[in-house]
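Quick one: sequence plus pyridoxal-5'-phosphate SMILES, need structure tokens.
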Amino acid sequence: MADLEERSKRVLSPVLGHYTYLPLDRAEGSWLITKDGRRVLDLTCGIAVTPVGHCHPAVVKAVTEQASKLMHISSGVASYEANVALAELLATVMPAGIDTFVFQNSGAEAIEAAVKLARQVTGREGIIVFRGGFHGRTTGAATLTTSKAAYRRGYGALLPEVHVAPFPYALACPIKPAHDTETCTEHCLAEIDAMLEHEIPPDNVAAFLIEPVLGEGGYVPAPAAFLRSLRETASRIGALLIVDEIQTAFGRGGAWTVAERQGVVPDIVTLAKALGGGLPLGAVAAPRALHEKWPTGTHGSTFGGNPVCCASGLATMLVLQREHLIERAETVGRIVEEELAPLRRDERVREIRRIGAMIAVEFGDKAASKAATAGALDRDVLLITCGAHDQVVRFIPALNILEEDLRRGVRAFVEAAQGVRQATPV
Ligand SMILES: Cc1ncc(COP(=O)(O)O)c(C=O)c1O
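Reply:
Sure thing.
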């Protein structure tokens, strides 16, 4: 039998990009174990999906018990405990007033549903998104995504009435001379005012849709002042503020939601990734009054809120609470930042930035970031990239990772990045 990589290349579509072809057998906590017994430290969390590590015993137990009791019944066909209990627990950790949920299967679905809700409720069509944002790959979500032009290439006309505003990412700003985040924020806010004057009438805007931290776009936090200003503008023009917390929630950004941390109350929050604790689950979260304006029967899903996925999400949240992992996210992020310190002197590193346990090392180009992650993998540490040019290495450790493993993993990355530097003179 040929190896997994060879077999997968024969039968699985090349449309899917691959960071690696590690032939996995299983995973435990922060460790991936390959078929030949190699142990690799996972600093990706399955792309921000497993905040309590892989196969946490409490999550496995909940999933197994649920699977042996009730594996599936559409949530529109009957009621079941896991579905309701997860919504009840979510209501206790969401920003003020956000107490009602509709479950979906993925992030992209949650995003599309949030847009449908915003359009129904406001009777308006326009959606303002932010350059560098990633909201998914379905046709609708791809229209809202601008983290890379490649995600739209060749797909023809997408959704109408989507407008793209600048995101305050000073390092990537084409306007010279280089400026600080505060100046960039002011400029971006002025651009939004100009858009509302010249491009889209304020009373056509159904919603602003923003990631509080650009995820795929490069792990770039939006300044709190920017988010607060958006909140004010949305309220002033009668539009909704949708905060896409699919990658940032459940402690990743240092709190249950980054919106809450930054003092902003959204109208709608989208959730997925860590929500299912390793199984596919998304959600649109909003105040009851908003959901009540969404006509019954105009949206739905066969699998959204599946019992096993909800049981997994519920167990994951309970572990986050029991093990105080939301509070620990800050410590996890600080440890990574400390260990990355030697790279601050490396002229090929443009910036090291962090919010909570989302940490980014931005290199000057993709060659450097890819060489550094390849070097880390040679040292048995898995890391992935992001950013418009894949020039950013992102650290997404489990929130319960052992300090010793984390320090060792980040040191291995630093060593790999420095090794590359020595091998390729700048
Ligand atoms: C912020 C954000 N929104 C939406 C999505 C899409 O989620 P999914 O891949 O589950 O459709 C992602 C996925 O990376 C994301 O990071």
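The pocket of pyridoxal-5'-phosphate is lined by residues 106-108, 111, 134-136, 211, 215-216, 244, 246-247, 272 (CB under 6 Å). The longest strand covers residues 349-355.
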